[in-house]
User: Fold this.
Amino acid sequence: MTTVPAESQVISDMLTDVFCECRSTMQTDVGKLSGDLFLKVDVEGQTLQSAADAVGLGTREARTLLFMFRMRVASALVGSISAAHPVRGPGPN
Assistant:
């Protein structure tokens, strides 16, 4: 079993804390960008290229974010429908 020197552990803990702090901020930023793309493309009818330009992304990145956002919307929609109308199993024999 190897031991980690105290100084290395402090640095590791610090990097972990910074990563955790940045991750929530990054997720918020990515969520906002993908939501903006969704509104511009799917609601307002803009082209992917013009929407990507508007938010400062390349087309490939915008396409990926938009795909992920659409998947989340679809999943949320299915979840809300399933909750509102539970599937009933077979009746008694």
